Amino acid sequence: MKSICVIGIGYVGLPTAAMFASKGHKVVGYDVNEKAVNALNKGKIIIEEPGLGDLVKQVVESGNLVGSTECPDDCDVYIIAVPTPINSDKTADMRFVRSATEAIVPHVRKGNIVILESTSPPRTVEDLMLPILEKSGLKIGDELLVAHSPERILPGKVLEELRTNSRIVGGINKKSSEAVKEVYESIVEGEIFLTTSTTAEMCKVMENTFRDVNIALANELAKMSEELGVNAWEVIRLANQHPRVNILSPGPGVGGHCIALDPWFLVEASDKSRLIEQGRRNNDSMPTYVKNRITSLVGRLDGKRIALYGVTYKPNIDDVRESPVMHLWTLLKEAGAIVKVCDPHANEKLEENYGIYDAAKDADIAVLGVNHAEFERVDFGKLASVMKGKAILDTRNYWSEESVNNAGLEYHLLGKSENMDKWEN
Ligand SMILES: NC(=O)c1ccc[n+]([C@@H]2O[C@H](COP(=O)([O-])OP(=O)(O)OC[C@H]3O[C@@H](n4cnc5c(N)ncnc54)[C@H](O)[C@@H]3O)[C@@H](O)[C@H]2O)c1
Predict the structure, then answer these.
(1) Which position among 258, 291, 340, 416 bears the catalytic label?
(2) β-pairing, 26-30 with 3-7?
(3) What number does CATH give the domain 3-203?
(4) Is 204 a catalytic residue?
(5) At 257, is the secondary structure helix, strand, or coil?
(6) What's the pLDDT tens digit per position in 20-61?
(7) CA 259 – ligand 1 centroid, Å
(8) CB 152 within 8 A of CB 207
(9) Are 52 and 15 a contacting pair, CB within 8 Å?
(10) What pTM does this model have?
């Protein structure tokens, strides 16, 4: 069994620490946030994740996991899981990785292992961390082993995915990769692939970039379709019959703290990343595009009443970080519209939140921003009876055109032209 320090006990670090502790390792969760540390030492958690509360309680009670606001001595392994956000100019903000690495230096000794789990721009281990770790006086790659092992867990399924996902371990040399593989083998059932640290960094960032660029392509298709008299959703359905084509869905933009941010790491790192940058900009343009579509349906936004359904960055979660619909909301308010939001999942995050039919009272238009399950059962007759206008804009292809039109409302769909080619009977 090893003694392990996990630096940063947030969405990634805490489940990782708890999993290692559940396998009998002695784990310290070190964090600069006293609130998180105090909660942990009481066996409690301050984030939402199914099953995590019970596991943390169990491993804290067993004495295998403790929280600390001080970086501990005498650990075999130091795992860094701190945030890697971007600055307002879209460059990577590496302050947390830098300070976490500096915090380790006085404590590491011969034979220790340092693992970076945070999603980081390629070359972070080689160019940012190693020069700092060298200050320990240890021979890097021999007396101090270092690797990047990116985390790919899905919020909501974190404990299961930590165990079953495959894992990439990118060491600065073979000895580091093999030692780090052995560390993860105690919690990971999936296959563990060994490579270099920079390749591992590139893999994780490219996984998120792959999705971002493909969503950008779907959004571009939506914009072109509206111009060219077609319905993008029908194009996608038919084109995806091709055995080697899988076009993703368009929408009001890309959100969350991974896919909407990580591609910028590549844009900063290399000027060869033209397609990636264009994709990012295309996805970032979608809230403005949707705002303009709303304007084309109701006229000048000043004084118009808008019911906005769903503001989180994806369906059925409470997370509004980098949410494109939150951005749309701001744009609508800036244009003078009176926006009433209804989001049954984001209750904690919003100062004002209306019920489905209260949000629509006297509305000129109702806009579906996020396809939460609760919105599947909207009674459009009831919606029509409280709305002033008739327009419905669906940005997710989620509501039934027939049900909306049968209620006397007018269905409009992001990506579907208002001037569709008609078949003559
Ligand atoms: N959340 C996810 O679903 C997810 C999935 C895959 C990868 N990642 C990546 O994992 C990394 C961590 O993300 P997260 O969501 O867990 O972040 P988080 O904000 O939930 O947690 C990070 C924690 O690190 C602490 N911290 C910051 N600087 C510190 C320092 N110098 N020393 C000690 N503690 C420090 C913070 O107080 C916070 O509690 C990021 O790079 C992220 O991109 C996240």
Answers:
(1) 258
(2) parallel
(3) 3.40.50.720
(4) yes
(5) coil
(6) 999 999 999 999 999 999 999 999 998 878 999 999 999 999
(7) 15
(8) yes
(9) yes
(10) 0.93
